[in-house]
């Protein structure tokens, strides 16, 4: 059965040139380096949906078909079917599964030959073609929920495989300058992920506890200086939160986040990134419409030579009930931290981001509700 359709059209125009500054001389690069992109697309789609439901089962099949007509004259058709199923074991336990496959067409600027300077020393070359990603995604989940005892749990496994009809050729020179070019070479990637969540409310002491765990593995093809290789990334993450408001005059909220990633770019080159962050807030409800809020944040990483960073903020808040407005007087960065560092990976690169902070400051603000 056909349940609906849609049409959409959009486009954009970009005009840019790249100039080199050597001493006091400025030189614009030749025409082939100019980033003149005129692109537009018209899309028309039709969605087919079939569903079945009884006391135990909920099944659904969605088959969206889309025609993509580009202003260059190229036309592409995509068909991305997806199936979802849910089985109710009993009033507390549920199983679910899903399967999807299809094709994604990458952004329109890939159709035009151009160099794009994304950031400092990162020059990307785009070829004149449409890029196609084919994917298959499967997921399976289990849910437990006990409303009477205010507890729940959820676990999910996802497997995704992607095949591309192109590859990125990454070139890194001796000065650290990076260029990226799209080449006609097939590449693949795959992803496994297990995630789970457990929540429990202790009603007698007015406390909520939530724990989230994530375990993932990603494999992806890449090319660096014309040497093909495969990167492997294993990650582990955990988020923990506990909130308590058992006392009338104060509430406490703690959040802990732990993440570790092990990246192997080649048999001889690997990196590990880890962080453990803590956030603790106390909210004091003073007589009248007065509130006092203490906010603590503690950041740790495995960056050598970098100490952990501790932040402390203090806010006084007065509530104007008749105006539905809050008057806030905040002392931010009380410990006068001037910087901190975070790190992450992109493709084959390990990057460290340095944040320059404002010194200790006093901020006055008023918030209105309508």
Q: Overview of this structure, please?
A:
The protein has no helices and 25 strands. It has 370 residues and is an all-beta fold. It has a 21-stranded mixed sheet that branches. The two termini are 45 Å apart.
- The structural class is mainly beta
> What is the gyration radius calculated from CA atoms?
27 Å
What pattern of helices and strands is seen along the backbone?
EEEEEEEEEEEEEEEEEEEEEEEEE
Mean of all residue-level pLDDT scores? 84
Alpha plus pi helix count? 0
Low-pLDDT ranges = 108-113
Biggest beta sheet attributes: 21 strands, mixed
Distance between the termini: 45 Å
Shape: globular
Binned, the helix content reads: under 10%
Number of strands: 25
Residue share in β-strands:
over 45%
Secondary structure layout plus pairing:
Blueprint: E1 2-14, E2 19-22, E3 25-28, E4 37-53, E5 57-70, E6 75-79, E7 82-88, E8 93-105, E9 114-119, E10 122-126, E11 132-146, E12 151-164, E13 167-172, E14 178-183, E15 187-202, E16 207-224, E17 227-247, E18 250-266, E19 269-285, E20 290-301, E21 309-320, E22 325-332, E23 339-346, E24 349-356, E25 361-368
Give the structure's gist in a few sentences.
This protein is mostly beta strands and 370 residues long.
Task: Give a quick set of tags describing it.
370 residues; mainly beta; 21-stranded mixed sheet; two-stranded antiparallel ribbon; 25 strands
């Amino acid at each position: 059965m056909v349940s609906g359709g849609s049409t959409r059209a959009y486009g954009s125009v970009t005009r840019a040139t790249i100039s080199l500054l050597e001493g006091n001389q400025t030189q614009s690069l030749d025409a082939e380096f100019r980033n003149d992109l005129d692109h537009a697309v018209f899309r028309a789609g039709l969605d087919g949906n079939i569903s079945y439901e009884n006391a135990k089962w909920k099944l659904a099949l969605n088959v969206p078909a889309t025609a993509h007509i580009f202003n260059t004259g190229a036309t592409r058709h995509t068909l991305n079917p997806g199936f979802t199923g849910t089985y109710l074991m009993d009033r507390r336990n549920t199983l679910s599964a899903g399967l999807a496959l299809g094709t994604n067409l990458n952004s329109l600027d890939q159709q035009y030959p151009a160099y794009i300077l994304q950031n400092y020393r990162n020059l990307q070359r785009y070829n004149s073609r449409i890029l196609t990603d084919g994917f298959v995604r499967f997921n399976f989940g289990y849910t437990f929920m006990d409303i009477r005892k205010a507890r729940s749990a959820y676990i999910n496994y996802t497997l995704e495989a992607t095949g591309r009809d192109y590859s990125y050729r990454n070139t890194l020179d001796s000065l650290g300058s990076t260029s990226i070019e799209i080449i006609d070479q097939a590449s693949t990637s795959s992803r496994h992920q297990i995630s789970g969540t457990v929540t429990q409310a202790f009603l007698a002491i007015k406390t909520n506890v939530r724990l989230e765990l994530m375990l993932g593995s990603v494999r992806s093809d890449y090319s660096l200086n014309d040497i093909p290789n495969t990167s492997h990334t294993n990650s582990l993450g955990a988020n923990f939160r506990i909130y308590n408001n058992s006392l009338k005059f104060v509430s406490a909220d703690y959040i802990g986040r732990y993440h570790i990633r092990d990246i192997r770019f080649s048999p001889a080159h690997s990196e590990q990134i880890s962080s453990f962050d803590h956030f603790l807030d106390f909210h004091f409800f003073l007589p009248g419409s007065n509130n006092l809020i203490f906010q603590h944040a503690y950041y740790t990483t495995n960056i050598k030579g970098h100490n952990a960073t501790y932040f402390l903020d203090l806010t006084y808040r007065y509530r104007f009930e008749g105006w539905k407005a809050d008057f806030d007087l905040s002392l931010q960065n009380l410990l006068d931290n001037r910087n901190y560092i975070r790190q992450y990976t992109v493709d084959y690169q390990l990057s460290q981001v340095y944040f320059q902070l404002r010194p200790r400051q006093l901020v006055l603000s008023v918030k209105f509700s309508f």
